[in-house]
Amino acid sequence: MVSVNELSPAELAALLYFHAEAGVEWLLQEEAVDRFAEFEAMKAARRNAATPPQSPTPPERQAAAQRQAAAPAERAAPRPQPAIPDGEAVQHARFAAESARSLAELKTAIEAFNGCNLKHSARSTIFATGNAASGIMVIGSAPGADDDREGTPFAGRGGELLNRMLAAIGLDRDAILLTQVIPWRPPGNRVASVAEMEICRPFIERQIALAEPKVILLFGNFAARFFFGENDTIHGLRGKWKEIGAGTLTIPAIATLHPQDLLTAPINKRLAWSDLLAFQARLKSLDLIRK
């Protein structure tokens, strides 16, 4: 075993990054755990299991009762439990979202909302960034580890690839609106549950209604399924124009592969490029970019 004191700063940073990617949220417990004592207790339990139990004698029972009476009644303080997604939490989320009259107010409402258990394990609340007046909205699935650390959507290597993808069709991330379906990173980058999705739905739909985009680009399988209401994979949902609703709005949207997926399988970049060209053509037809 290598002591932490023997690691260089770069090696220590790499180790912490590895744990963060694996979904580790806490490195320390409230009290030290004696693993050697646990091991000895396990061995003793096995030995006792192999030996027929003997009834304690009356003096032994009396001594045990006296020790128990003399011991102070110590109970661990109850730890706060995360909120459980349910119908009431969905109603609270809907009320908070509909009460917001601007994106700034909605951001404040989401940051103050405690009805989704994802918030209790996430470091940051991810909200839309960029220019809402552009008429162009890009929506990803859920924050990853880089997004959670930096507090912004599409961070890290995936964000760098996104920047290049947008630049290829004449867009800049600061000139359009970027956001995520889920504002908090699910532990270990797992997929958000159905209950968690329904709690977050009023917030993302309100973002769309307040931003009033003329066209939307969806990145990833999760976002496509969330808005299109279908269970197909991204390969079956990508490249097809569909309409999604938010409030009184109906907005044309197209889905493509997430930049993170393209880093894993670069061969699919040709599919994403075809979708980006279709998106660019729609932007030109709406006079949102130069023809």
From TrEMBL:
Kindly give the SMART domains that the UniProt entry links to this protein.
Answer: UDG (SM00986), UreE_C (SM00987)
GO process terms (BP):
DNA repair
Q: What is its EC number?
A: 3.2.2.27
Give the transmembrane ranges. Answer: none
Alphabetized UniProt keyword annotations:
4Fe-4S, DNA damage, DNA repair, Hydrolase, Iron, Iron-sulfur, Metal-binding
Q: Which GO terms describe its molecular function?
A: 4 iron, 4 sulfur cluster binding; metal ion binding; uracil DNA N-glycosylase activity
Composition bias, Low complexity:
60-75
| Record has Hydrolase as a keyword | yes
Question: Entry's InterPro entries?
Answer: UDG_Type-4/5 (IPR051536), Ura-DNA_glyco_family4 (IPR005273), Uracil-DNA_glycosylase-like (IPR005122), Uracil-DNA_glycosylase-like_sf (IPR036895)
Q: Which residues form the Uracil-DNA glycosylase-like domain?
A: 127-277
**Which chemical reaction does it catalyze?**
Hydrolyzes single-stranded DNA or mismatched double-stranded DNA and polynucleotides, releasing free uracil
Pfam families of this UniProt entry? UDG
Region Disordered: what ranges? 45-85
Q: Which PANTHER family match?
A: TYPE-4 URACIL-DNA GLYCOSYLASE (PTHR33693:SF1), TYPE-5 URACIL-DNA GLYCOSYLASE (PTHR33693)
Q: Which family does it belong to?
A: Belongs to the uracil-DNA glycosylase (UDG) superfamily. Type 4 (UDGa) family.
Q: Specify the protein name.
A: Type-4 uracil-DNA glycosylase
